[in-house]
Structure formats: structure tokens, C-alpha cells
Amino acid sequence: MLTINRRSTHTILAQSLANEVRRFVDELIIPNEPQLACKENQSAQLQSELAEKARSAGLWGLFYPASYGGKITALEDYLLVAEQEARTEFSSDIFGSHSALDAHMLLKFGNHEIRKQFLEPMISGKTIPSYGMTEPEHSGSIPDLITTSAHLSNGNWHINGRKWFVSNAHKATFITVLARTGEKDALLSSALSMIIVPANTTGLKVERPIPIAGSSLDQSEISFNAVQVPEHYLLGGCGKGLELMNQRLGIGRLLRAMSWVGLAQRCLDLMGARINSAHGRSARLPEKQLVRQHIGNTYQAIASARALIRIAARGVDTQCSSHIEINTAKMAASRALCIASDSAIQLYGAEGISDLTPLSGISKIARASRILDGTEDSLISSIGRQLIHFYQQKSTYSFD
């Protein structure tokens, strides 16, 4: 009973914070979306001002580690807040949520120097993290094909290679790089390591932004040419890269899924507003069967994704996580966003594909969601393989 009461208390706190975040988004961020979308210094200044207001309101870094000011400790509870934060695509920098995953990784696997030099400034909003895993020479992010190399010499890691689809690389203060530190014939489980590289290190170069559907979505290609960083910038121990990568991917996919559900909710709200607007009533949208199907299918997709995310998040919280649950939740959230954005655009017509609504930007994120953090094809193949293997051992799968 004590455990249930404690869980209930944490959930009540999360719901209260979610309500505050929703008001902040509705009153301060959404009205400023056109200005935030501009690629000018004025946009950056506005974003900084809103981030300071979020900090003053106690809404900054809500899913940071508790020892560094985070107010929500369970991933399942954070779903309530994350989906409210993500109802606008400009929220991650304003609420500091873009750094939450790195905050947990640096705290768990970083040494004292890493926490002091990288974690603490990041928590305070003074630095921006990035992560380099995928490489341009190979399809996807298959760990066995990683060629970016790092070897230890005279107390420094020497790093060479290229990474692409690196988020925030153009504005990052440091990048966590997955590199091959073992010999060519070494087992994959001990061949990779994660190393932190400050963005101003000699030999590190942002080669180019990578536009996605006409927008950057903050993706870039970077190169490492004889980069040298101190030995103690190693994260989690030499040869532990694959283990860290899997932990990062699992939590990262759920955090992304939560944000996609938030954007899908925004599309659902926009659909409701459109249907019941003067324009919608004059076009008799509330009476049309296909319109009802659009909004009904969108609700069903969002509700299903939220339930699957909650199950997967609970597994992470109780250290009983399953790749089947995590990957299924990620795909469900992606599909919910695709259904929601496409349905909303259909109801808005030409206005929906213009910059007069946020839907065109959301639709680009929706399409990218089926690729980023693991393509839908690779994830469904992985899920199927694991389920087939399960039934080679047992006769019934338990959903409890």
C-alpha cells in the first residue's frame, strides 16, 4: 500500500506540472510560433527569453536527475508532462527537455570530471549536448559497421571518422561519439566505446547541414580528423559502448515517442477547432462521415500510442524493459503522428500545407519519425524476430 500511495503522489505531482506546462505552451509559446520559426537572431533571443521564463516558473528540466533539480523521477510519469511540452515543435530548448537523456547518461556513466565539466553546465542551460552514432558510409546505424575509430596514446584518445544525422551539431557544446576502440577481430560487445568531444576541439568539423523535406530539423554531418581528447573523457569504461548505446536508444526512443504523441495531440486539437469553426460549419464538416472517421481514427491512434508508451516506460522504471515494448511504442507514436498530421491537413486543405498553420512543419517531423531512431522496417523486423524466438521457447506470451 505504501508503494501505491507513493506512486499516486508522484503521478499527482506530474499531472500538476503537466497542467502548468500546458498553460505555458498555450499562452507563451504557441502565440509566438511564427517568430520562433524565423531563422534570425531575433528568434534565438525570443527562445532564450522564453527559456528564462520557464526556468523562473519552475518548469525547466523537469525530467533531469533529481540530484540536479529534476522534479519527475519516473519515465512513466514524465509522459504526462512530455506530451504537453511537445504540443509545439519549439519547446525542447525552452523547457530544456532536449538535454534530459544526456543528463541521465552523464550522471550514470560519467566520472567526476565529466560531471563537473559537461553535466553541470548543461543542467544550468549553459551548454548543449549532441550525439554521434550513424555514419554516412553505411546503411542505418548498425553497430557492427561502425568505422569511426579511437585509440589511446600518451593519455589522449585519437579519433578519426565521420558521423551524420547528428542532431544539434551546429550549436552543440560537446558531442558524445560512438567509436571503435577494439581491434578488428574483437567481439562487438567489447569493441565500441563512447567518448565526449568538446565542439571546439581541433579536427572536429561540422561539414554541412542535412536538410530533411526542405527543413534542416537540426541534422548535420560532422567529421573527426586526428581529434585528440583526454583519456578521462571516456564514458562508462572502454569497450562499454554497445551497452551504453542500447540503454540510450531505449530511453531515447520513448522520449521521442512521447514528443510525437504531443504533436499528434496538437493536430487533434486543430482538427476539432477546424471542424467547429465558422468555416467548418459552413462546409458542414461536423456532419460528414469521412470527417468523423478522420477525427475518430486520430483519437484511436493517439490513445493506443499513449498506452503502449506507458507500458514500455513502466518497464524501464522497474528495470524490466523489453525491446519489444519500447520499439512497438516508438512505432505506434510515429504512426499516430502520421495519421494525425495527415488527417488535420486534409481538413484544412491548402491552408494546411502552407505556413499559415503549424501543420506543414509537423508533417515533416511525422514523416521523419518513421526513419529517425530506427526505421520502421528495421524495428518491425526486430520485433518479429524476437517474438518468433520467444515462441521457440514458450507457448504463450504474457502481456502483464
Verbal overview:
- The chain is of the alpha+beta class and 400 residues long.
- The chain folds into 3 domains: 2-101, Butyryl-Coa Dehydrogenase, subunit A, domain 1 (Orthogonal Bundle), CATH 1.10.540; 129-235, Butyryl-CoA Dehydrogenase, subunit A, domain 2 (Beta Barrel); 244-393, Butyryl-CoA Dehydrogenase, subunit A, domain 3.
- 52% of the residues lie in helices and 14% in strands.
- A 4-stranded mixed sheet has the order 1-4-5-8.
- Helix 6 runs antiparallel to helix 7 and helix 10 packs antiparallel against helix 11 (323-348).
- The model has no long low-confidence stretch (mean pLDDT 92).
- Its cofactor is FAD.
- Keywords: FAD, Flavoprotein, Oxidoreductase.
- It holds the Pfam family Acyl-CoA_dh_N.
What's this entry about, in short?
This protein is an alpha+beta fold and 400 residues long. Helices cover 52% and strands 14% of the residues.
Give the helices and strands, then pairings.
Layout: H1 2-29, H2 33-36, H3 41-56, H4 75-85, H5 91-95, H6 100-109, H7 112-123, E1 129-132, E2 149-153, E3 156-167, E4 174-180, E5 192-198, E6 204-209, E7 219-230, E8 234-235, H8 241-275, H9 278-282, H10 289-317, H11 323-348, H12 359-369, H13 376-393
Parallel strand pairs: 1-4
Antiparallel strand pairs: 2-3, 3-7, 4-5, 5-8, 6-7
